[in-house]
Amino acid sequence: MNIKTKTFEVQTAGTISGYASTWIREPDSYGDVVAKGAFLDSIEQIKDSGKPIPLLWNHDSADLKSFIGTVTELNEDDHGLYFEATFDDTPEAQRARQLASDGRLAKFSFAYDVLDQGEVELEDGRKANELRKLNIHEVSLVMYPANPDTGVVEVKSGRRNSAKDEDKLRQIIALAQECLGEYEDTDEPETESSAKSEELDTVNDEERERMARLIKEAEDLLTKEDSK
Predict the structure, then answer these.
(1) 68 within 8 A of 92, measured Cβ to Cβ
(2) pLDDT in tens, 158-187
(3) CA distance 219 to 170
(4) CA 47/CA 119 separation, integer angstroms
(5) What single DSSP character describes residue 104?
(6) What are the backbone angles phi and psi of residue 146, rounded to the nearest 5°?
(7) Are 190 and 197 in contact (CB under 8 A)?
(8) How many domains, in total, are found in the chain?
(9) Are 71 and 53 in contact (CB under 8 A)?
(10) CATH (domain of 108)
């Protein structure tokens, strides 16, 4: 049996960046703190594999609609686990982007396997479970994070049209403008039948108006995309 496959490019629309984890020494809702360096090996494995991890809504990997984007950058800095991600061009992903942009969704979490952990005493004498080495599987935009110190750094609307789509749109505009010019140059002359002439003029006027309106809409769309 021969199985044929076809690869499609995922259209992206907008980006988000933030911290999925931080080194704050305040135990999260599970009593855990994360040690700096806990993600380094996992980050390298992800880079070496060439397979990015997903951005999910609320860890819901059972629902494909909850796959709202792709994590494109992961690294540790002095504050925590910083990430950047692109949003998919789907209604669910774009709704999540809007909510993150206006601040109604502003926290993150992540799914992981624990490879190394141990009890640690904090500066105030409390005990906590320190996560020292983790494999990270996804980053999630969430309403209620285990670690409230996580947060959004920036959300951008991005481009909804790829460069290839933009080229096609410009070609369509050029062709439409050419056709519109031909309409203007080839108006039917007056004939013996004034009724027929008026009918042709009406059709030409309607076509000119329709094409001019479509050209304007396409040009407005390009202008809007270029300004983002």
Answers:
(1) yes
(2) 654 445 556 656 666 677 667 666 655 555
(3) 8
(4) 30
(5) S
(6) -70, -35
(7) yes
(8) 2
(9) yes
(10) 3.20.16.10
Q: Are residues 140 and 171 both part of a single domain?
A: no
Residue 4's identity, in one-letter code, is K
Structural domain harbouring 167: 163-226
How far is Cα 158 from Cα 88, in angstroms, rounded to an integer?
11
Closest Cα partner for 109 from 74, 148, 70, 77?
A: 148
- Please report, for residues 7, 8, 38, 44, the alpha-carbon distance to residue 3 in angstroms, rounded to integers and kept in the order given: 13, 16, 41, 33
CB 96 within 8 A of CB 75: no
Contact between residue 18 and residue 150 where contact means Cβ atoms under 8 Å apart:
yes
Q: Model-level pTM?
A: 0.66
> Residue 175 half-sphere exposure, CB side, CA atoms within 13 Å?
6
63-108 pLDDT, tens digit each: 999 999 999 999 999 999 999 999 999 999 999 999 999 999 999 9
> Token pair for residue 106?
């502003």
The residue among 162, 149, 106, 109 whose CA lies nearest residue 98 is 106
The number of helices, as runs of H, and strands, as runs of E, in the chain is 4, 8
**Are 51 and 149 within one domain?**
yes
